[in-house]
Design goal:
about 450 residues, alpha+beta, six-stranded antiparallel beta sheet, Phosphorylase Kinase, domain 1
Length: about 450
């Protein structure tokens, strides 16, 4: 078995099989319709088979292809139940596992990173990976001082595979978009490409995880494992046990779902306030519900900076969105640089676009659900069309940092819908987002204090 299918011709052929297979199924579907089968039934069958092939190929390729699959799996809750049901298990597998690389290859990467005497650093080392993901796999081990540790080993050739994948996947948006209507695939893939270039750098990941670990040390709600060692394409951290969030989604009690959902939301919102960073990869495989009720968090390779001024902008924008005043939303969006300074904008249209993102914060308590997300997804299809026809899409000016925050929050919302979590999410926004409670910006607050 190879380390990772990275030869350009091999990977391109696998990815190319997706649109070819989709076209073939469409042709077969057309033939079945001419024989009298209902169009909706045929379309659903085509979607189901396409989805099964999509996730199978993405999982086999790992790298950027699998990362896109993991991201799309977050939005599974927004699919119609008759389509989501048959391959929900496949999505969960993408979140939690992937085919492992051979032990000999793992040993080679460990030697390159930690040195030929790497075994002396461990009292025990399990060759069988405990988890495998998009660009690396994790082994359980015991550090020489007795601590249980997780050893993250990057797949050889992952960097080359990532770039090849994203160049190819960006051409597959017409295939993915019908499966996940309302999800703009091209900008998501472009943002993922930027982020995964960072994820390949384990030095950067160790630095980010240390920042989060220090910020949440001793916290009653969260546990961020400490970094034990890092060198080359190897990252060693303290082991994190607990129940994977995917299992809570599948079989957790409502109390566990609500607890996990509120903590996940709190962690994402509190990160910028506590260390000016946000965890932007909120798929269930990165979180564990611990026996003491805390939420364990791992995988900080894609963490993004959220400086104070951006925190104020997000807080104010969300607050104005809860008011439902289109003219006020347009005014604040222009002030914050989210809209071009000139150009006609329909306030009601902009308010309709903002509403799904702010609805959970407009009430004292809100329940996320698959039904709610399906409604928002269906609305998103029409809004996207309206934005293009009215020219609003050309008016939007979203900085890269905001896109990272937006992706993190959207992913979090998808997981909350899978959990069916209910909680006081507005109170969390008031607690952690400056500018949300009263709308004042940092300059106004300083003047008020003076």
């Amino acid at each position: 078995m190879s380390d990772i299918p990275r030869r350009a011709v091999t990977r391109t052929a696998k990815l190319a099989s997706l649109p070819i297979g989709f076209a073939g199924r469409r042709a077969i579907g057309l033939g079945k319709r001419t024989l009298g089968r209902p169009a909706e039934t045929v379309a659903l069958e085509v979607q189901r088979r396409t989805a099964e092939q999509l996730f199978r190929v993405l999982g086999e390729l790992k790298g950027g292809a699998m990362k896109v699959g993991q991201l799309l799996s977050i939005f599974e809750a927004g699919l119609p139940e008759e389509l989501a049901g048959p391959f929900r298990a496949s999505l969960t597998k993408l979140q939690e596992s992937a085919p492992p690389m051979p032990a000999a290859t793992t040993h080679r990467v460990l030697a390159e990173g930690l040195g030929d005497d790497w075994r002396e650093m461990f009292a025990e080392f399990d060759d069988a990976p405990a988890a495998a993901a998009s660009i690396g796999q994790v082994h359980r081990a015991v550090w020489h001082d007795g601590r249980d540790v997780a050893v993250k080993v990057q797949y050889p050739g992952a960097g080359q595979a990532l770039m090849s994948d994203f160049n190819q996947i960006s051409r597959l948006s017409r295939l993915i978009t019908p499966l996940f209507p309302g999800v703009e695939v091209k900008p998501v893939v472009a943002d993922l490409k930027r982020r995964l270039e960072k994820e390949l750098d384990y030095v950067d990941e160790a630095r980010a995880q240390t920042a989060f670990h220090d910020a949440y040390a001793g916290d009653p709600d969260f546990l961020v494992p400490a970094v034990v060692a890092q060198s080359g394409n190897v990252l060693v951290t303290e082991w994190l046990g607990g129940t994977p969030l995917a299992k809570v989604i599948a079989a957790g009690t409502q109390e566990e779902r609500d607890r996990a959902g509120l903590l996940l939301f709190r962690f994402l919102l509190s990160g910028p306030a506590r260390c000016e960073m946000i965890h932007i990869d909120p798929h269930p495989g990165n979180f564990r519900l611990l026996p003491d009720g805390r939420l364990g968090v791992m995988d900080f390779g894609g963490a993004a900076r959220v400086p104070a001024e951006l925190q104020w902008s997000i807080g104010r924008m969300l607050r104005i969105g809860t008011l439902g005043d289109g003219d006020e939303i347009v005014r604040v969006a222009r002030e914050e640089g989210f809209l071009a300074p000139e150009g006609e904008v329909d306030p009601e249209q902009l308010a309709a676009i903002v509403a799904p993102h702010t609805e959970p914060f407009a009430e004292e308590r809100f329940r996320y659900s698959r039904e709610w997300l399906r409604e928002q997804t269906a609305r998103g299809v029409g809004l996207a069309t309206d934005m293009r026809s009215s020219g609003l899409a050309r008016q939007l000016r979203l900085p890269p940092q905001y896109l990272a925050v937006s992706r993190a929050m959207a992913g979090c919302g998808g997981v909350l819908c899978q959990l069916g979590a209910e909680g006081a999410f507005r109170a969390e926004a008031e607690r952690w987002l400056p500018g949300f409670a009263d709308g004042d910006g940092p300059d106004e607050e300083a003047e008020a204090t003076a």
